[in-house]
Amino acid sequence: MTRHVIHEQDQWLPITNVSKIMRKALPSYGKLSKTAANCMQECVSEFISFLTSQAAEKGSIEQRKTLNGEDILYSMYSLGFENYAETLKIFLAKYREYEIEESESRREKYLKRKERKRLKMLQENEKDIPLVEHSPSEIT
């Protein structure tokens, strides 16, 4: 049996992502030390783990295996991060609105493509139908 060793660093956010976010908060002349980025990487990863474990506990009590946005909001409120939770609640609502609009837009595009294909097939089929000419006496 093969044992997989999971190092603590493997569960952290990628350092490049953390550094990029930190640099955006600094003025253009500011510098970011590797030690500061590493420290923030560890802190942010621990914070996310803390919130997630609280949310997972709620999901477990409710006999669910999948966490959702409300679970994260609940954990933020219960752990005393109300200010952040309020902001996240607004963002989550806007994100869900966006997702609905995108879904509707994708559906509309799909239906338009389907209709174009159908019309193209009809046009191609019309080309294959031979034209039969009738004399005026045959028509009446």
UniProtKB/TrEMBL annotation:
The UniProt record lists the keyword Acyltransferase: no
UniProt protein name: Transcriptional activator hap3
Annotated signal peptide: none
An annotated GO cellular component: CCAAT-binding factor complex
Annotated gene: HAP3
GO molecular function, one term: protein heterodimerization activity
Transcription factor CBF/NF-Y/archaeal histone domain boundaries: 12-74
SUPFAM superfamilies in UniProt: Histone-fold (SSF47113)
Matching Pfam families: CBFD_NFYB_HMF
Cited InterPro entries: CBFA_NFYB_domain, Histone-fold, Transc_fact_NFYB/HAP3
Annotated organism of origin: Eeniella nana (Yeast)
Family, per entry: Belongs to the NFYB/HAP3 subunit family.
Keyword terms, alphabetized: DNA-binding, Transcription, Transcription regulation
